Amino acid sequence: MTRSAGAPLRQRAVDRVVRIQELYAAGLHGSKMAQVLPCMRDEDGGPAVRATPARVIELSLERERIDRMTGDLLRWREVLDEVIATGDGRRAAGSPSPQPAA
Description:
The protein is mostly helical. It has three helices and no strands. It starts with a helix and ends in a 15-residue tail after the last helix.
């Protein structure tokens, strides 16, 4: 293997590692990831020939789970904004915090 031939291989390996990290960050478990990775192209994460209709259904369910988690996080952030605003003595969340005295 020549040096230039190794560079694309190394880049594909890096792409695969990044993709795995993204899937873990999204909450995909190892066993589910083992099913998903063969169905994805490394370069763009798009579907590969092995992406079967059954996998599409499974991934759709994963996406719905992520959507629910996102909604939960947004609601929790709103609650935190209200608590922070109350603790700062402000009425509306998002207004600037009072500056400490110099």
